[in-house]
Design brief:
It is a single chain. The chain contains 11 helices and 9 strands. Helix 2 crosses helix 9, helix 4 packs across helix 11 and helix 6 packs across helix 10. Strands 1, 2, 3, 4, 5, 6, 7, 8 and 9 form a 9-stranded mixed beta sheet that branches. With 336 residues, it is an alpha/beta fold.
Length: 336
Amino acid sequence: MKAKNMMAAMLAGLAGSFLISAAAVAAPQFTMKLTTTTTNDAGVEWLNTLKKGIDAHSGGRIKVEVYPAGQLGSAPRTIEGVTMGTVEVALNASGFYESLDPRFGVLSATGIFDNMEQGDKVLSDPEIRKLLASYGKSKGYEVLTTFMHTPVAVATNEPFKTLADIQGKKLRVPGSPLFLHMFKALGAAPLSMSLGEVLPAMQNRTIDGAVSGNTIFTSLKFYDVTKTMTYLPSTHIAVVAIINSQFLKAIGPELSAMVKEEARKADEHIYTWAAQDADNARKVWEQHGGKSLTLDAPDAARFVKLAQESAEAIFSKNPQEKADYEIFKAVAQKYR
């Protein structure tokens, strides 16, 4: 009887040790926080896809947490968090990264991306990937992905059918120097403003319109304030995800390679998803009584010309930015 009790105790002890060991193996070794300021868009879809891939292939060694809708703070704050190591990955429109490196401004230039499909081909090109990978490595971060998010449009209180219609109009634009220069050249009165302030500002007529991605206008229900949205030719928003360099070093070569591989897989998924999302946004806008306008051929050509002249003026101030702009233009031509 004593022998049986001793054997049972030994088995129980072994079982307990096994459970403790299994729990130790299953416990995540690293936590990876992914954040963006948007919600229900291509950026969030990409982050969730990355999380699923890492969850499936890290063997439980990395715990991935996704924080959309600015839960970890504003875009500038979370970008700073990545460089400081308090956030592992931040995904935002490319313009938010110009304070880190002005070369990110090239991604906003009119005339490089003709449409979503061609734009993703440009951003997937090995030469462009190598170029973007050189941004930031000495500043504590690496570029994890860059992909097309949405076509750029202008939502206005009064119809914007010709370039003459925005003469003197107060338009909220993304804070990039490129957009400010471009719309001044077009005769408008551009100003930088937080996206959360734009809808009420249009409602009380403090501003005449706003420049942003078409998916932003539908997700924030701008159709409750205005019914006109004009698409700008050859102008798109690209988003960038950066990852903390020390985090990649800490997780080691195997997991680091796995994270980058899963990022590439998320890219392949998002190319089709984002294009469909942009198309759905147009349909939602129109279903709520909105009109989707475009400039006629002469005005569209004039817009592109003035926008490209603005890009040349801005980028010529920085030799490296100018060189990158020329590379982007050459690669873009390959996919036309």
